[in-house]
Amino acid sequence: MAGLKAPAFSTAGDGTGEVDLNPEVFGIEPNHSLMHQVVTAQLAGARAGTHKTKTRAEVRGGGAKPWRQKGTGRARHGSIRSPIWRGGGVAHGPTPRDYSQRTPKKMKRLALYSALSVRASETAIKVIDSFDWETPRTKDAVNLLTAVEAGGKTLLVLGRNDDTARRAFRNLPQVWITSPDQLSAYDVLWARQVVFTRQTLDVVNGGGVYDISKSDFVRESEAS
């Protein structure tokens, strides 16, 4: 897809032109089944896996038969720890386990590029030249998002040095902040708008040299 571009804005919300998007990253044919597989693996990796119930061997009591074997007219029972008794153990209950799935880097990379291509096709990729704010103010962050028409769930990709912008946006509940080396398909698909700076877009535009998604896990606040 030649000539793929995204609109660029200043921190005041004024348009400053367009930025070229790498067609190998933002213009591929989306692989929907792969995106589903990778996102499912990321959600599975976020599960704590600490669920636990006691079996009949672990509950307290039941050292003797509740009543004798014969002659009572009632069904025979050997222990009050039986799963059919109230307060007894649980049959086939959950036990602690690891839900994480191994996801090759090539799969994660292709899933991310597919997700970015979907958002690019929806003109949902926006670029901020750079953040020149001297002090972090949430009001400035809201005004900027309104000016660039990035309402609703927004993914903001910031560089390591954009601390002022990070503090300005962090109180907005519909904004998730990440860095280029932690960008994942889940984050891109969660958001309706993806906002880069020119610096972070250059990193992502690098394509093959970009080692994406260092973790198989999603943020705990979204998985819970």
Condensed summary:
The chain has helices spanning 23-26, 32-45, 105-121, 138-147, 163-169, 185-190, 198-205, 220-223, and strands at 5-9, 15-20, 125-128, 154-157, 175-178, 193-197. It is α/β, with parallel strands linked by helices.
Termini distance?
38 Å
As laid out across the biggest beta sheet, the strand order is: 2-1-3-6-4-5
- Poorly predicted parts: none
Amount of beta strand: 5-15%
Q: Quaternary status of these chains?
A: single chain
CATH fold name of the largest domain, please? Ribosomal Protein L4, Chain: A
Assigned CATH architecture of the largest domain: 3-Layer(aba) Sandwich
| SS-based class | alpha/beta
Describe the structure.
The chain folds into two domains: 5-48 and 100-223, Ribosomal Protein L4, Chain: A, CATH 3.40.1370; 53-93, no CATH class. It has 224 residues and is an alpha/beta fold. Strand 1 and strand 2 form a beta hairpin. It starts with a strand and ends with a helix. The chain has helices spanning 23-26, 32-45, 105-121, 138-147, 163-169, 185-190, 198-205, 220-223, and strands at 5-9, 15-20, 125-128, 154-157, 175-178, 193-197. It has eight helices and six strands. It has a six-stranded mixed beta sheet.
